[in-house]
Specification:
The chain is of the alpha+beta class and 381 residues long. It is built from 9 helices and 23 strands. The chain folds into 3 domains: 51 residues, no CATH class; 215 residues, no CATH class; 99 residues, no CATH class.
């Protein structure tokens, strides 16, 4: 119930207004509670009061800011990515979360102008319609202030549990390596000293190196355990991971513009307060599966092709633009067989590794990220 200082000052008082969450009670319960409220007021000399009940949807305005991208020497670097703002961040809608349907963010963009014609401060993310909207045969558009929102969450329930398991696996791996190092140090120290001074020096250097590595592993385990507890406690509630709401989910269509393109696209407005502190724009984390040399080498299947790719600092690749239709039709790279091609970098399961000019009339090249593929031109890297 709202507080009314008029009761204490002796001034007039005309109503009591309890506020409750949607579906939090029943008509019978509110009637019974109203009688208790009226009786309490009358016992204190307040008469002629009307009790009004207000039911509304409880909506959390914002949550914790998303995490920053840590350096590669940080033990959390390879397990915190799902809570950062890099492209490929895993998402799920409240509507589709129960079916374990999830996808990822393909890119971010700023709104152009607001309804008054002023520069917009809103930021939107792009993904697939089928990822966030169950009925892909109709178009959904957010109607504005006061309209119910279809919320988008950072990682669904199952993906979140998988992320926790990854952190625990990382802790377990560090623990195993620490045990092995400790055993190796004991064995080295128990080895009879050799008359060969060069060998003695090597053993001493090895023991020192292993001790330093063991100390680092023990420290990493502590950091990872603290991170696990932090993630579980601060991000475990699904509602704590709401990062925006659907703005426009266009119905899926095929053979767009008579070119056999498929349109499967959805935009959602991001919660700026959660992104602002650590947002880096349209950046992809290239991960650790391939070394810088391997990725660079894979980008040039033939030595005669163009060589413009440079492995980015810290493995963070910024998306700078789109491949135009002309380049799709006439690629300027060549594969190992001398055929024109464009290289597609993909973190997922289904996208082809290259695009050749011969396919230009039948399909659009897809730019893909984990669990989702957007029918959009391939970004220039």
């Amino acid at each position: 119930m709202r507080e009314h200082p008029e009761l204490l000052s002796g001034e007039s008082f005309s109503g009591a207004s309890p506020s409750i969450a949607s579906h939090a009670t029943t008509a019978e319960n509110t009637h019974n509670a109203s009688q208790d409220i009226l009786a309490l007021l009358e016992d204190n000399g307040v008469k002629g009061v009307v009790v009004e009940w207000y039911e509304g949807v409880v909506e959390k305005l914002s949550g914790l800011p998303l995490l920053r991208i840590t350096s590669k020497i940080d033990p959390t670097h390879y397990v915190c990515c799902f809570l950062t703002t890099v492209l490929g961040m895993p998402i799920a809608s409240v509507e589709r979360e129960a079916t374990n349907t999830h996808g990822s963010v393909a890119l971010f963009f700023h709104g152009n102008k607001d309804n008054d014609g002023n520069p917009s401060t809103k930021v939107f993310a792009v993904t697939n319609c089928h990822v966030l909207h169950e009925d892909t045969t109709i178009t959904y558009e957010f109607k504005g202030a006061g309209a119910p929102r279809q919320h988008v969450r950072l990682v669904g329930f199952h993906r979140f549990q998988h992320a926790l398991d990854e952190i625990k696996d990382r802790i377990g791996g560090c623990g195993l390596n620490a045990d092995l190092l400790a055993t190796e140090i004991v064995q080295l120290e128990a080895t009879p000293e050799s008359d060969d001074q060069e060998l003695v020096a090597e053993d001493e250097a090895e023991v020192e190196a292993k001790r330093n590595k063991l100390a680092k592993l023990k420290k990493d385990i502590g950091v990872l355990e603290a991170f696990y507890n932090e993630v579980k406690s601060q991000w475990g509630d699904n509602t704590c991971r709401t990062v925006g709401h659907i703005h426009l989910a266009s119905k899926t269509s095929v053979d767009v513009q008579g070119r056999k393109y498929t349109k499967d696209i959805c935009t959602f407005e991001v919660d700026a307060a959660r992104f602002r502190d650590h947002s880096m724009g349209n950046v992809v984390d290239l991960g650790a599966k391939f070394s810088p040399w391997q990725l660079t080498n894979m980008s040039y299947p033939q030595s005669g092709g163009r060589t413009v790719f440079e492995f980015p600092i810290n493995g963070l690749l910024r998306i700078n633009g789109w491949v135009p239709r002309e380049l799709l039709a006439h690629p300027d790279c060549f594969d190992s067989n001398g055929e024109p091609c464009l290289i597609v970098i993909k973190d997922g399961n289904t996208t082809r590794e290259k695009h050749t000019g011969r396919e230009r009339l039948s399909r659009l090249v897809y730019f893909s990220l984990p669990q989702s593929t957007l029918a959009l031109p391939l970004p220039i890297v």
